[in-house]
Amino acid sequence: MSFPPRQLYYDGKVQPATSGKTFQTIDPSKATPLADIHVASHSDIDSAIASAERAFKTWSQTPPAARARILQKAASLLRERNDEIARVETLDSGKAYTETSTVDVVTGADTLEYYANLVGSGGLNGETSHLREDAWVYTKKAPLGVCAGIGAWNYPIQIALWKSGPCLAAGNTMIYKPSEFTPLHAQTLAEIFLEAGLPAGAFNVVYGAGDVGAYLTSHPGIAKVSFTGQVSTGLKVAGSAAGNMKYVTMELGGKSPLIILPDAELENAVDGAMMANFYSTGQVCTNGTRVFVPRSMKAAFEKRLLEKIQFVRLGPVFDEATNMGPLSSSVHYEKVTSYIRQGIESDKATLLCGGPDKPQVPKDLQNGYWVKPTVFTDCTDSMKIVREEIFGPVMSILYYDTPEEAVRRANDTEYGLAAGVFTKNINMAHRIIDQLQAGITWVNTWGDSPSEMSVGGWKKSGLGVENGRKGIEAWVTNKSTLVDMSGGVPTVFAKL
């Protein structure tokens, strides 16, 4: 094992799990175990929530400026330990170190700092209305209480910070359950928060699979659930939370369209399509996996794409030349490769490159969950590989004749997470974007999601938004008060 066992973390310290159950987290690049992870029992979760309830009494009453200083310190500590944390992320998730060291920790720290600065500068101030000479109304933004954050395995520490940043900035406390496939970051984050000055119990960690998450999210002590994951699980979590009148934020899956207009610069179009399909080994919910290309551009687009595929470099995950790692787990490897076989054998799409066979990698990596960057062309809208989320490095190219046709087909999906367009005509870009049914859209770029940008899905792709000024609204509730200063109370119950 590369790491010592992970127990639970609440009340500001490591706590033993009482379930007697463990699971292993695996290095996807080699399929070797990294650490034993102890599973939380129901009573452990009860104890963690009780710890968070105690901490809430203090943290919720801490002035916003003081909360901001603590969270700013935590962001600074994350940046100081960037490389150390990124190495763990790479081992746990399989993502190339060139990515985790420049994106994962950095963007998470950015979000934490953004919300610290927002609340520290009065971003949670309410509103005041002067109704009449002797009456006025004020509205306060109050924290919700103990919140549950359910993380995902593709961006472990970034997603943990996307949830905990606004949660803690607003004065709430959190029980965080990382994905069972990538749990190693969670205790490190808890320790950094404590070192920065967060009260013991304000950020707590429990481990386990879906049964642990189900108990946590349905617990009467939880006021809000923030979940990132696949649609089927999100529907269950949202249903359970709504049935108990909990606040929810759901960031779910997608099958996002990327529309290349006829006037687009070919080089930019190909680069955009590759970033939208192969970055993070295609394990990004916003990936633009349906690439709509003008029929007139077919030969040129495919030729340049094939020339650039050689720049997708698989190999040792800590090698500076490597820019695509393995898939995250054996289960996910089987899922992605089955979709690739589906595309070849049943959908009868044209395989432009890639395929289900393992790529050539060094001998010590051959047991890992490696897959070739794969491109299907001549795809149709009815194909399974076009309609269902694969969550791997699998691009489907669809050809069209008019922009109106491309927009109509792009919207023909139950998902609505992301969409984008590549064109030199910015006016046309705005017209196309305005018609696309998605909550996150891009023009002449793909995937950039800064802390200032509120993001969330339409249709089955989510509920609510994360990040930006709108993002913190999901972590507070409003309390309105009318103050009457007239000295009397109007009444209809008077003597005639």
From TrEMBL:
Its EC number is 1.2.1.3. Keywords: Metal-binding, NAD, Oxidoreductase. InterPro entries: Ald_DH/histidinol_DH, Ald_DH_C, Ald_DH_CS_CYS, Ald_DH_CS_GLU, Ald_DH_N, Aldehyde_DH_dom. One of its GO terms (molecular function) is aldehyde dehydrogenase (NAD+) activity. The active site is at residue 251. SUPFAM superfamilies: ALDH-like. Residues 18-480 form the Aldehyde dehydrogenase domain. Gene3D superfamilies: Aldehyde Dehydrogenase, Chain A, domain 1 (3.40.605.10), Aldehyde Dehydrogenase, Chain A, domain 2 (3.40.309.10). The keyword Transport does not apply. It comes from the Eukaryota. Pfam families: Aldedh. It catalyses: an aldehyde + NAD(+) + H2O = a carboxylate + NADH + 2 H(+). It is an enzyme of class 1 (oxidoreductase). PROSITE patterns: ALDEHYDE_DEHYDR_CYS (PS00070), ALDEHYDE_DEHYDR_GLU (PS00687). NCBIfam families: PRK13252.1. Belongs to the aldehyde dehydrogenase family. This is aldehyde dehydrogenase (NAD(+)). It comes from Aspergillus sclerotialis. The lineage of its organism: Eukaryota, Fungi, Dikarya, Ascomycota, Pezizomycotina.
